[in-house]
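User: Run a structure prediction on this.
Assistant: Running it now.
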Amino acid sequence: MPSRKELMLLRLKLLRDTVSKIERSKKLYSKVKNLDHLAKMTVEIMTEDHAQDAIGYSTLLKHSGQYRGVLEESLSKISKLNASSLSSRNKQHGNLSILDSAPSNWVAEKALLQCKISNLNEKLTKSHQRNEQLELTLAQIDQQLGNGNTNVTGNNTENETRKMCHAMAHLLDWLNSSDLGVIYEQNNNTITDIYGEVIVNSQYLTPYFDWQSSREHGGNNE
């Protein structure tokens, strides 16, 4: 069974292959007027060709999602293709006013810009929320670490390490729930991003790993 990372990469490839198919077919791309049209057409084609791996309509259009980013990029290309096609037809039919070709292109461009503005607003809102959550998390970590003696020696070492591991667990819980794609891989004791890139290696996480293991095996004496 593929991992979450592998599944996402497979779906992204399927999506890019599908929109490329639309972009290469004048019969298909000429029907696309906005992002909604493109999403519906993409779902139909994926369902016909790869029913088992097809991505749902609502998933494709999820704000700030990678799938939506691929669709928006494709819509931009399709808008230019449609504008170019319309311009060629006008030249073939004589000296038509430039205003005759404007409405169709304006609708597509307006839809694309509205999508981008909506995405930017959503990202801005999420950034504010994440900053507030991070500030709260850091404040809680600071409280957990306390205002004890900063000279961590002798018998204080174990206690201070335990406090730091508590703080680490709290921060990782927040990262896992914040849609940032940061994951603690317990099997190899690393912190990775959603694509499997190592952010923090096991060398620096040994105290945390030992602490987690002792808790799981009933060694917690707190």
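The radius of gyration is 26 Å.
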